[in-house]
Amino acid sequence: xxxxxxxxxxxxxxxxxxxxxxxxxxxxxxxxxxxxxxxxxxxxxxxxxxxxxxxxxxxxxxxxxxxxxxxxxxxxxxxxxxxxxxxxxxxxxxxxxxxxxxxxxxxxxxxxxxxxxxxxxxxxxxxxxxxxxxxxxxxxxxxxxxxxxxxxxxxxxxxxxxxxxxxxxxxxxxxxxxxxxxxxxxxxxxxxxxxxxxxxxxxxxxxxxxxxxxxxxxxxxxxxxxxxxxxxxxxxxxxxxxxxxxxxxxxxxxxxxxxxxxxxxxxxxxxxxxxxxxxxxxxxxxxxxxxxxxxxxxxxxxxxxxxxxxxxxxxxxxxxxxxxxxxxxxxxxx
Length: 334
What we know:
Largest sheet: none
Structural class: mainly alpha
Distance between the termini: 194 Å
Order of helices and strands: HHHH
Number of helices: 4
């Protein structure tokens, strides 16, 4: 009988195991989400530190903070939508467990009570058999057997009624399980629809906020470009003025130097003319001296030529005299 009872309530035990497995999976998912959020939070902190190191405009940082706040709010709202469905499902599951537990306890008590009554009736029927066996009268035995038969039929009817009650409870449990399964399927469908809508909404919001940040950055870039252009134009004008003043000063100095050079040139021209006149006078004097020296040189050359002719003639005469003396000496020796 205990084995039959266990087989009858095996389905409820399986449902409880499935629910506990679902709870474990849900806990694992929640832990994974926490770890993911922690990683994202650490990543956000690293990015914020990098942004702090960078020279980011205040307007861009403000837009980033506003976008971050809006996206966090949208994410929390989406999480609440999903959590509401999950909580409703958990509440319904808890109510189902409590209902199943209470009904199971009632059924167990009813089965135990029916079992006690049936055991009592069975013991009563069993106790009558020795008495019947001691009877010798056929009519009396027939009456006792009919009474035993009636008691047996009552016991079987009682068992059949209990079986029908258990079948009805089992059918109700099956119907309730199917209803709960349909409700869970509907919750899953609603949850899937909400998640898909939330994902689409978050994608759209991410794109919009990225566009907002890009627009703010473009405005800030244009502002900085305009400011840089104005700064460069002011610097350029300042440089032009400085260079113009410097150029004017240099031109003034060049004019002054040119005037000084012209004056110096005129003075040098006067000096050159005087020098040229003096040099012409001196050149004429030197030329006359040169002519005189030339005449003296010609005279000296003539004198040297004459002396050379005289010396040459004397040398020839001496050579002749020496030759004559050699011949005389040779003749004397011979």
